[in-house]
Structures are given as structure tokens and as C-alpha cells.
Design brief:
Shape: globular
Order of helices and strands: HHHHHHHHHHHHHH
Oligomer: single chain
Distance between the termini: 8 Å
Number of helices: 14
Length: 309
């Protein structure tokens, strides 16, 4: 499916969902349920194809396969150790890495100087994440402070997140205008991205952090990434079908869900009063680092193919 069509329907659905919460704010009581559904259906599955994506254009040997999984697992273990020994630094780095990953997955099609593109990717993600926290500060504080190691009460304030959101938003707008003036960004795409960001800010304003993140992470990151991943694999592997795609998703999605469930039940014995959302952040951070390298390769190397198909 052409990405342009996917984006159009995702935006329509986002607007309808926004109107729904404005008319029926009672549905916000089901934010936790929506979050769980999103994570199970698209959140975890969108990262379960890293091995297939990595080998899509490569000859597969036993040694190459072993090296790939060894590096992948090693990165996961390194992140887990960092959470234990350097929790605050790890949290900050994870937020920065996630911001870049979110921005790249949304704007990978943008042309222009490499440094400018990567800065804009990061600013896009920083603005989205910091806006959600700044506009739902007490909810965000409760989640982050639930991990005592972070000492959130000593450094976290609504002013800090408001400054980060405002500064990143202003510089991001300047970056968008730079790309548009230099014809790296069409007027249509510029208006589309600005409208999407406005919708996400409205979600943060009129709903809550969990609901807003579920909408963004579920629709605009995970589901959209699944379309992109299928498109890339379909172009790279002859005869690759939707059935192959679903079969490739299942094994690692199943293992990740089992691991997450086990972690959820073990967490109270390791950390008192740890929020399940903070547990999710720690869990996802361990998977995001190796996943980011895989997806960066896909976005950068398949950029032209993905746009033309």
C-alpha cells in the first residue's frame, strides 16, 4: 500500500478519534485497556521483524546469523545493566534515542542535508514526547517517579518539560521552514506534518498521557512502521506475501509478550510501587537500541524505493 494513502487514512482516523474524546470524554476511562491492546496488536509486532529486515538484501550464513543475534542480545543486556548502574543517564539517553527514532520513522522521506535531517528527526520526537509530559505533568511524574532510582522529585518539574517542548517546537518549525524554502519539503507535506503535530498536542490537552501516547505509538509509529516494513520486504524479497509477513511477526512477538508478562509479575519483588508504564519504558528501551540500528538502515537505504512504490 502506498504510504501516502496510509498517512491519509491514519490522519482521518486520528481526527475522528480526537472528535470522539471531545464529545465523549468518558472513553478516557479505558486508556489502560487501549494501551494494552495497542502494545499487543502493533507495538510489539512492529519490532519483531528486525531479523527479517536485516537479512532482506544479504546472503545468510550460519556465522552471519550467529553474529547478528549475538550483537542483538548483547545490546539488550547492556541496556539492562545500564538501567541498574546508571538509571538517570540511561533514562535520558533512552528519551533522546526514542525521540530520534520516532522522528526518523515519521520523516524519513524528507530530503536535504544529512545533519539537518537528523537534527529535525530528533526535534520532532523531542517535541512530541515533551509535549505529552508537559501537558500531563502529574501523570508523567507519577510514572517516572515510580522508579525510585531516578530521583525524579529532585529534577523533574513542569517548567523543565514546558521549556523543552517550547524550544524544540520553535526550532522544529524553523527547520521545517528551512526545508520548505530550499525545496526539500513540499508545501503539502509541510501542512500535513503541522496538522498532525497539532492533533497530537490537542490529544495531550484534552485526554491524558497514556491515551495520547497510545494513539501516537499505536497508529503513527507502530502501525505505520508495519506498513513500511511490509513494503520494504515485499520489494526486496521475491514472492514475499502478507502470509509470510504475519508468520515472520508471530514468533518474536509471542516471546516478547511472554517476557513482558513475566517481568510485570516479577517487578513488585524488585522495585516497590513501580508503575507498569515505567516497566514498559524499561522493557522497550532494551529492545529499542538494537531495533533503531535495523530501522535506521531500512529508512536510509530504502528511502527512494519506499517513496516510489
Amino acid at each position: 500500500m502506498i504510504l501516502k494513502v496510509v498517512d491519509k487514512w491514519l490522519l482521518v482516523f486520528t481526527v475522528l478519534l480526537l472528535l470522539l474524546i471531545l464529545i465523549l470524554p468518558q472513553i478516557l476511562a479505558y486508556s489502560n485497556t487501549l494501551f494494552l491492546i495497542i502494545i499487543g496488536l502493533v507495538g510489539i509486532p512492529h519490532g519483531a521483524l528486525d531479523h527479517v529486515i536485516h537479512f532482506r538484501n544479504k546472503s545468510v550464513s550460519k556465522m552471519h546469523t550467529f553474529n547478528f543475534y549475538a550483537r542483538y542480545i548483547a545490546l539488550i543486556l547492556v541496556v539492562c545493566c545500564c538501567w541498574y548502574f546508571f538509571p538517570l543517564t540511561t533514562f535520558g539517553l533512552f528519551m533522546a534515542i526514542s525521540a530520534y527514532h520516532f522522528g526518523q520513522s515519521q520523516l524519513f522521506y524528507v530530503k536535504g542535508p544529512g545533519v539537518v535531517r537528523h537534527v529535525i528527526f530528533t526535534l520532532w520526537g523531542v517535541f512530541v514526547l515533551s509535549s505529552i509530559i508537559a501537558l500531563n505533568y502529574h501523570e508523567g511524574l507519577a510514572i517516572i517517579a515510580s522508579l525510585e532510582w531516578l530521583n525524579a522529585d529532585e529534577w523533574m518539574s513542569v517548567g523543565l518539560w514546558t521549556i523543552i517542548a517550547s524550544a524544540s517546537g520553535l526550532v522544529l518549525m524553523a527547520g521545517f521552514l528551512y526545508l520548505w524554502v530550499h525545496r526539500h519539503f513540499t508545501k503539502q507535506k509541510l501542512l500535513f506534518e503541522l496538522f498532525l503535530l497539532a492533533c497530537l498536542v490537542l490529544f495531550s490537552t484534552f485526554s491524558n498521557a497514556v491515551f495520547t501516547f497510545s494513539v501516537y505509538f499505536g497508529l503513527w509509529h507502530s502501525l505505520r512502521s508495519l506498513f513500511i516494513e511490509y513494503q520494504s520486504l515485499n520489494l526486496a524479497i521475491k514472492g514475499y506475501s502478507l502470509r509470510n509477513f504475519l508468520l515472520n511477526i508471530f514468533p518474536f512477538s509471542f516471546l516478547a509478550i511472554i517476557f513482558l508478562v513475566i517481568s510485570y509479575y516479577l517487578a513488585p519483588y524488585l522495585w516497590n510501587d513501580l508503575s507498569p508504564y515505567m516497566l514498559f519504558i524499561m522493557f522497550v528501551s532494551a529492545l529499542t537500541v538494537p531495533h533503531l540500528f535495523i530501522m535506521h538502515d531500512l529508512y536510509e537505504n530504502d528511502q527512494i524505493k519506499l517513496q516510489k512504490s
